[in-house]
Amino acid sequence: MKLPELETLYTLYRADLYRYLCHLTHDAAEAEDLLSETFLRALRRLPTFRGDCAVKTWLFGIARNIWLESLRKRRDTVSLDDPEAMLERCLGRDTLADTTDARRALARVRELLGEMNPKARQVVELRAQGYSYAEIAPRLQITENSARVLEHRARAVLQQTLQKEGY
């Protein structure tokens, strides 16, 4: 399959990729940086594109991998002791002020995680640290799909419980 020129790809997919990266990062400036890196990497990899998938799918895969790499680079800066970052990653919230309420919510999240199935807790914690499902699965000796399901269910329980409790 012959790919269109990079300029054409940029014109066609820039807005969709940017929205996707904004959704992942919750930061317009970071999304813009990752978008640039996505197209730079695509340019370098154009000769290796085999046509196994749609061009858009290929570009979104590159964007996702770049985002995951950025998470891994800052993985050490997010710990369970950082209430804002932990809640942001666990619950998908943009930001929380460093308040007593945030600390109470984090304590409740820890408590709820402690009550969960150990594998579900580990999946949530590893995802919060930026690990991919592909990295988590062999580490916990489960399939990638199992990791996804465990995280989804754990997040749902966390969100429902915290909502009921007014967090």
Termini Cα gap: 51 Å
Helix content: over 70%
Number of strands: 0
The profile of the biggest β sheet is: none
Series of secondary-structure elements, N-terminal to C-terminal: HHHHHHHH
Low-pLDDT residue intervals, each spanning 5 or more residues: 92-98
Radius of gyration: 18 Å
Percent in strands: under 5%
Content-based structural category: mainly alpha
Mean pLDDT: 81
Number of contiguous helices? 8
Overall 3D shape: elongated
Family: Belongs to the sigma-70 factor family. ECF subfamily.
InterPro entries: RNA_pol_sigma-70-like, RNA_pol_sigma-70_dom, RNA_pol_sigma70_r2, RNA_pol_sigma70_r4_t2, RNA_pol_sigma_r2, RNA_pol_sigma_r3/r4-like, WH-like_DNA-bd_sf
Domain RNA polymerase sigma factor 70 region 4 type: 108-156
Protein name: RNA polymerase sigma factor
